[in-house]
Model the fold of this input.
Amino acid sequence: SAASIVVVSGCGSGGTASTEEVTGTVTYNGAPVADASVTFTPQAGRPATGITDAGGKFTLTTFTTDDGAVSGMHKVSIAPNASQIPPMPGTPEAAVAAAGKPPFPPRYSNPETSGLTADVKEGGDNDFTFGMTD
Done:
């Protein structure tokens, strides 16, 4: 007899987990952090991500743009935005980038070491502020 295989996809509108709109602000030593990648990792399900603007503000996306995050507890990580185009090798910008340290401590890039969490509430005002320090 033929075994039937059911493939469950995380994409599309059918069967996706409901999400809550999530916004927030990221600061480092009190100043807004621009162009950082913010990731909310739930205990189960798909992580949500967003990129901060010049004022350090972000809106999360899980399935469709700005749809938010699944409700529940999340571990939060904040990393320099990887989509930044690296400077051309051999230029002064490349030398600065190679010598430069990350814009904030690297522990924030790992959800296990960031110490940051967020509890996304159903129907709640999910606006979070993450203040990073040295």
Notes: Strands lie at 19-20, 23-28, 31-32, 36-42, 48-51, 57-59, 69-70, 72-80, 116-120, 127-132. Residues 92-99 form the longest helix (8 residues). The chain is about 5% helix and 35% strand. The first strand starts at residue 19 and ends at 20.
